[in-house]
Amino acid sequence: MHGLPAPGVYRYATTGGEWVSLFDTYRAYSSETMRIVTRRGCGVREEHFFLTQHLEYYDRCGPALVSYGTDIAYWWTHGTQDFKCQGGSFDMSGMRPGDRVEWECADEDTTARQITEYIGDETVEVEGVPLPARHTRWTTLFSGATIGGALVDDWFDPSTGLLLKETRDIKLNVGSQFVGRLDYTDRSAFTLVSVTPDR
Fold this sequence. Notes:
Blueprint: E1 8-20, E2 25-28, E3 32-40, E4 43-51, E5 54-61, E6 64-74, E7 77-86, E8 100-106, E9 110-126, E10 129-144, E11 147-156, E12 163-176, E13 180-192
Antiparallel strand pairs: 1-2, 1-3, 1-13, 3-4, 4-5, 5-6, 6-7, 7-8, 8-9, 9-10, 10-11, 11-12, 12-13
């Protein structure tokens, strides 16, 4: 599909991890994580596996993100989010540097206000080769059952939409029916190992 990554398994060199206030628990991510791209609906689904107990998914249709979610487990707590989105642009294809769009996603008890900015045209080195990259910044402000914010910088291949690199700084306060409210942070980064997927 034009402007969307080809199906396959992509590997990313990964640093950082996540922390939760329950028992002051820190989990480092695997040094190499996987992002699995499959065809779905009008576009693709991308599932990123950071740990056995941490999965994220993104459903893309052209430049739009139609839904996304997380599935994270800690000890005896298990949290899932399944956001449906309206409007906006996820990878800012068809836009110009300096452009900015605002849009909104929501699940049953949380609203996510989204702001995407086109920072500029840059390069990302993959397999020793500098590749052209569209640098975007995705800011999310959560309200409702989950509160807090996320700042995510992405670098996309302009022709295929493939995610080449990501850095993230996420700080949330979330509710658990078993242990009450928890603080959660994610500070991590990952870069594509090869543009050729494992199939």
